Amino acid sequence: TVTLLMDDFAHAFGHGSNHFYPVLQQAIGVDSAFEGWSPRAEGAVYCMFVPLSAPAGHAFHLEPDTGVKTPGRNFRVRVELECTCARGQLGDNSMLCFLHHSKEELSRKQEPSLLDTLCTGPYLDVEKTARWLNQLVRADWLLLPQSYHRHLILLPSSRSCKMQLSKGKESFVVEVLFGVQQGDSDVFVSSQSTGAHFMPSTTWRETYAVAEANFFRHVARQAPQDSWHCRCLQLLTCTAMGTSFSTYTLKTVVMHLLNTGPLSRWSRADFLQRMVDILDYLHCSVDKKCLDHFVVGNQRLPGEISLPPDLQKVEPPNLFQHLARDPDAHREAMRDCIRLR
């Protein structure tokens, strides 16, 4: 159902690429629901990621944002105007050049540039873009076939487009995040917030969600049809609820194991042994107070997953760095490891 909705929304979003707003690309399903290991519990959130590209006459440039103290890397998206005079010389008179026509003529004959609509200063503003996207969904929803038998409610969210879709007693939430691609890689800067930290509206957080979703798709293509790797992760995340281990930590452990051993060993018959392997890996990582990030600095990623050059050879961030700083947190994590066994 959600995959069909993605296709419908992609069609609807296409109407929003007119004028000089960001061009919305095909939505990408990310996170547990689209990676195949969602517990499918009531109230699950299905997450889609929509890449943005610059409209005609504009260019996006990513700049590190070092002024914000949050985990991971943060960026700002600088919007610059580009000369489009060559289009007119080739007979395309559909737009005036923002750089070489007077402000008076531009204001009379052309829609405003992106700098005048969704930017704060020269930088693309996350919250203004989210409001525009929400307006787009509200305007286009009734054009979709889904609107005939589902009810849409837009939920409050300052950095995404979050909607609840219901049909009778069935109800689920879809959150649409958006961002800008780093070169031709599978790494983006995203509208997603850190949750616990304040983020200025011009700050975009680096995200590896698309790279991780592509890794799970790669595994699904390469693994035998009866592979139980997703069921292992599904059971593990349910079992570990209430412990100090985040879902992302457990997912990272499973991704490392999937990437370093034969995928043929994840069959139903191997289920118990793979669960033992996962818990052993987790225990060893907690004991060493070190769990490498799966994407950043990983030289063993499948060739089809592309990283920006500056992320390929760096030292992977340690997801357990806090355990080295906090002895109480380390003791709690060790107790949780024993409990999970």
From TrEMBL:
Pfam families: Mab-21_C
Protein's cellular compartments: Membrane
Membrane topology designation: Single-pass type I membrane protein
GO cellular component: membrane
Chief localisation class: membrane
Keywords, alphabetical: Membrane, Signal, Transmembrane, Transmembrane helix
Domain spans labelled Mab-21-like HhH/H2TH-like: 243-295
Transmembrane helix listed as a keyword: yes
Organism, scientific name: Sylvia atricapilla
Protein name from the UniProt record: IPIL1 protein
PANTHER family: CELL FATE DETERMINING PROTEIN MAB21-RELATED, INOSITOL 1,4,5-TRISPHOSPHATE RECEPTOR-INTERACTING PROTEIN-LIKE 1
Recorded family membership: Belongs to the ITPRIP family.
